[in-house]
């Protein structure tokens, strides 16, 4: 099943990539730990939110399409719970 709203997902991932680049730069430039942790936290949150968007889209698509099986829904639920 393709990703719902790929443009939205890609924008979120690109933002996360930018935050990871900031973490790398901060470490390379000897930034204080507080700054590094702040950037890491932002990158972590961005990736988590992106994962939720992907799983939520898949769950929405599966619940709208009556042809999806209980197994499909169980698999999506497992994916969703893996994010916690």
Automatic annotation (TrEMBL):
Source organism's superkingdom? Bacteria
Give GO MF terms, alphabetically.
DNA binding; metal ion binding
Q: Which InterPro entries match?
A: Metal_Tscrpt_repr (IPR003735), Metal_Tscrpt_repr_sf (IPR038390)
- Which BP terms in the Gene Ontology apply to this protein? negative regulation of DNA-templated transcription
Enumerate the Pfam families for this protein.
Answer: Trns_repr_metal
Q: Does the keyword Cell division apply?
A: no
Name the keywords, alphabetized. Answer: Copper
Write down the Gene3D superfamilies for this protein, in alphabetical order. Metal-sensitive repressor, helix protomer
Q: Which residues cross the membrane?
A: none
Which protein family is named in the record? Belongs to the CsoR family.
Q: What is this protein called?
A: Transcriptional regulator
Which organism is this protein's natural source? Answer: Schaalia canis
């Amino acid at each position: 099943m393709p990703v719902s709203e790929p443009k939205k997902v890609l924008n979120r991932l690109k933002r996360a990539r930018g935050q990871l680049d900031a973490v790398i730069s901060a470490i390379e430039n000897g930034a204080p730990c507080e700054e590094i942790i702040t950037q890491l936290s932002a990158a972590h949150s961005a990736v988590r939110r992106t994962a939720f968007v992907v799983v939520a889209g898949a769950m929405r698509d599966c619940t709208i399409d009556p042809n999806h099986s209980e197994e499909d829904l169980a698999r999506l639920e497992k994916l969703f719970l893996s994010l916690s």
